[in-house]
Design brief:
mainly beta, 19-stranded antiparallel β-sheet, 25 strands, 5% helix
Length: 390
């Protein structure tokens, strides 16, 4: 197929910007494995009101306002180093706001239980930060002392003295949201490559129990640059940057059925989840009405909205009935998902206080399913949700 560009002949890179709309320098480590990047840029066309002598539209001068929207789908990858931020972490930083909180790893001391972990020395952890043990990822619900913490959900076994506690990189909400640049390089070299600058992530979705563990990000950006129309100075660049030298392909993707779910006022492990989605919506607005500019100059997030949709099979046990009772009484519960089952492929999402909705009963299949839809997380200040890679 001469002169055609195949749709899989491209690579994606993402990095937090030093300032809105200023493209950063990227390296091979900033590459992500994206399923699809959709970019839509539209000019704002206004109706002319003057009489032109006919019914024919004779046009307007170029330079009107532009609106640039994007959506990006990516997978959870295996093969990362626990305690080292993966490239996809930059996307979670952009949608949550908080920079990476790194726990490099540690050693268990004596006297740990499955929920109370004692370290051999000062741990330096804060509430909402995560770490791992024996292929499991857990979040800190409370810091008990400089050398001990309480977990949001129990480990399967208590770490023995001297056991290795693996590292993790955690992200939490913040008032301000950094923007990212998303680089889209294509083969052959003459094909049009692009850079999305000033990309503000308005919505993030984490999908549980799909074919693979998937993350979706969508929002608006300042502009999109390309190799055909680029002029010096755009995005703070003197020239359109060359793609970094490749250093191997992306890692293996993690099957969507691998992981753990913990729900309830006192977290209980559920093996009956059929489908779940965690969504964060920043109620984003682009500052795009300034005189003298055709592209946005800033972005403004509104009230954060974090929700969970959960489908599960009903079972006649105390934990499942406890979810129904909590929904009827509007009593908050914990929601924690671990995606993956081995260190280096783990992702976690922890919502410490979620008010469940009364479930809908779906009896269309052989087994009764409950659907908890639009269950909203709450908190005190920038603490509705925490995520981590481990």
């Amino acid at each position: 197929m001469a002169n055609c560009v195949l749709s899989n002949q491209n690579r994606f890179y993402v990095k937090v910007e030093p300032a809105f709309g200023q493209a950063p320098a990227i390296a091979a480590a900033d590459r992500i494995a994206a399923v699809k990047l959709g970019i839509r840029q539209r000019d704002e066309l206004r109706d002319r009101k003057d009489k032109t002598g006919s019914r024919t539209f004779v046009g307007v001068a170029p330079g009107g306002r532009k609106r640039t929207q994007f959506d990006l789908q990516t997978y959870l990858l295996a093969g990362t180093t626990p305690g080292t931020a993966p490239a996809a972490g930059q996307l979670f930083q952009s949608v949550l706001g908080g920079g990476p909180l790194v726990f490099a790893g540690g050693t268990a001391g004596g006297g740990s239980s499955t929920t109370q972990i004692v370290f051999s020395g000062p741990h330096g952890l804060v509430e909402g930060q995560a770490f791992g043990f024996n292929g499991e990822l857990r979040f800190v619900a409370a810091v008990s002392s400089p050398t001990s913490v309480t977990l949001s959900a129990p480990f399967s076994a208590a770490p023995a003295s001297g056991a290795t506690l693996t590292g993790a990189v955690s992200y939490k909400p913040a008032a301000d949201l950094p923007t990212v640049s998303i680089f889209d390089y294509w083969d052959p070299t003459g094909a049009v490559s692009r850079i999305l600058i000033g990309a503000a992530c308005g919505i993030c979705r984490v999908k549980i129990n799909s074919d693979f563990h998937e993350f979706e990000f969508s929002g608006e950006a300042q502009d999109v640059l390309d190799t055909v129309s680029f002029t010096a100075g755009q995005g703070g660049l003197g020239a359109f940057p060359a793609e970094p030298a490749l250093s191997g392909g992306p890692g293996m993707v993690v099957p969507g059925n691998l992981g753990q779910a913990w729900l309830g006022a006192t977290a209980s492990k559920f093996l009956t989840i059929t489908k779940a989605t965690v969504e964060l919506d920043n109620d984003l607005d682009m500052r795009n009405r300034e005189f003298g500019s055709s592209v946005p100059q800033c972005h403004a997030p509104g009230m954060r909205k974090v929700t969970a949709d959960i489908r599960l099979f009903e079972e006649d046990d105390a934990a499942t009935k406890g979810l129904y009772q909590a929904a009827r009484a509007q009593t908050p519960i914990q929601v924690m998902f671990q995606l993956g089952q081995s260190a280096g492929q783990l992702f976690g999402a922890y919502l410490k206080s979620v008010v469940p909705k009364v479930p809908e009963f779906d009896d269309s299949d052989r087994v009764l399913e409950w659907s908890f839809t639009g269950c909203r997380a709450q908190g005190s200040q920038d603490d509705e949700i925490y995520v981590a890679f481990g």
